[in-house]
Specification:
9 helices; 3-stranded antiparallel β-sheet; single chain; about 15% strand; 2 domains; about 300 residues; alpha+beta; rod-shaped; disordered N terminus; Arc Repressor Mutant, subunit A; 10 strands; Nucleotidyltransferase, domain 5
Length: about 300
Amino acid sequence: MTKSIYVFIIHKRKRAGGEMKCAKFGFKSGNILMASLLYLLLKEPSYGYLLVEKLEEVSIDPAFVPYGVVYRLLREMESDNLISSVWKLSESGPSRRMYSITSEGVEYLRRWTNNAQNNLKIMGKLIFSINNELQTKESEKREVNVMKYCFTADESNGLESVLSYHFGHCPYYVIVDMEGNRVKNVDSMPNPLADEHNPGDLPSFMKDRGIDVIVTGGMGPKAQQYFADYGIKAITGAYGKIKDVLKEYLKSEIVIENQSTNYDGEVEIEEAHEEGEIDKLKKENVDLRRQIADLKSRLTKLEEKLGD
């Protein structure tokens, strides 16, 4: 218990017909203290200083309850006939007041208990409703938190990069931090596992970087399952510049492909007889995707103008 009990611990009184009356049946700390004292006197008559010590029985720390507050409250309750007192002679020391609860005090305690139970029901429902609303607001807040999107890329040019078809052997990744529909940060990085990696290496790498969604041109079903096991959503079938792909995704225009093929990983280029021929094919493939991406970007801009 904290010292904040001092704020409300003095029992409130109001004037009615020129007399001082106890403000009955409230659920404030002062009334809780009064009910606690009546409860202790219901058990047995007691001296004032002993009542303070016995407050521990009702989970009130006596250290935070001044004796003056208790004696003031006892005088108020006695003036309202809730308790009575008699002087008891002491063999050692001065006489002391022995307090006892009256029939009116018992009735007050009964009514206070009923009122407290009703208040607890109301408070329980209110606490339940508040907790539910807080959880809802927290969920809504989480929904607008930053999401990390990873795009496979043929080049290190941020949102202007062309999306790569291969998720594993692409030369670069473009990481985009999104808050709702707002781009918070764009980071291009080389693919550290482009030359060689084992199944599951890339999903683990993406998980360590906090990636939520990976967007690529193609990915086998087993590879998609690896990502799913790490809680990463895989979007396939996309093409074009990353900024255009991102716009389409936010508008839900990208179709998530559930490929039925059985290959594990990316489509591999057939091995040519000479390395020079392979490199040439790869370059032509990248150039072709770049041209398609440029055409798609122009088409998107024309459609937006026509829409205006």
